[in-house]
Amino acid sequence: MSMTKEETRPDRRSFLKALSVGAAGASAVAGLATPVEAVAAESASDKRKKRYRETDHVKAFYRTNRY
Amino acid sequence: MARMKFLCDADRCIECNACVTACKNENDVPWGINRRRVVTINDGKPGERSVSMACMHCTDAPCAAVCPVDCFYTTEDAVVLHSKELCIGCGYCFYACPFGAPQYPKVGNFGSRGKMDKCTYCAGGPEDDLSAAEQAAYGSNRLAEGKLPLCAEMCSTKALLAGDHEMISEIYKERVSKRGYGSGAWGWKTAYKETINV
């Protein structure tokens, strides 16, 4: 009786092991398959650069706000 | 050098909340967050005043001073921006800001706040200008397009001014010299009689 228990245990464990290995493999494959989203970040000087320009659009805003 | 500022002419603001709506729509602001809001004092009483408030883009910003991950930066246009990549949602900036500008989406489990969101002066964030990533995280970058924040541009009574601080302070000075302050404003005596002073 005890012998049969010994026999069944490794089977159960191997099943769990296979399951965990499979899951890890699947996640690794998923990790490889999905492209890493590269967020194009600006450099430290670029992100601080001046963006305001006195365009015609902005000049029209100033003009219409005078009255 | 041009320094970007907001100036709300309280004599003109009629509490229509169009600036709030425009901001939310232009920048796809998430539920539960208002980057701009209208504050009314003495609502329904004589002397009622409304002011449209958002991030004031402080010169020495207290939010930036307390941030433990240093996610804030000031641009050459004097606009205070932040990086949502770096933000850890600690909430320190929310406590430090005297205007209540930094807000959190409050979508996380276990009381986590999520990434802080605040007015960007329609100038985007640290991602590439006018990129999809910038649009998704921070909203539009009108400054890079040669425009000004939409809240100010579509103010129906021209109460909310935005742009170069020298220019908008000059415009405000002109208005005041023409109409005077408070009770000297055009139409004031018609609406509130001469007996009411502010």
UniProtKB/TrEMBL annotation, chain B:
Keyword terms of this UniProt record: 4Fe-4S, Iron, Iron-sulfur, Metal-binding
Organism ancestry: Bacteria, Pseudomonadati, Pseudomonadota, Alphaproteobacteria, Hyphomicrobiales
Transmembrane stretches, start-end: none
Record InterPro entries: 4Fe4S_Fe-S-bd (IPR017896), 4Fe4S_Fe_S_CS (IPR017900), ET_IronSulfur_Cluster-Binding (IPR050954)
MF (Gene Ontology): 4 iron, 4 sulfur cluster binding; metal ion binding
Species the sequence originates in: Candidatus Raskinella chloraquaticus
CDD domains in alphabetical order: DMSOR_beta_like
Pfam families the UniProt entry points to: Fer4_11 (PF13247)
UniProt protein name: Formate dehydrogenase
Residue intervals of the 4Fe-4S ferredoxin-type domain: 4-34, 47-77, 78-107
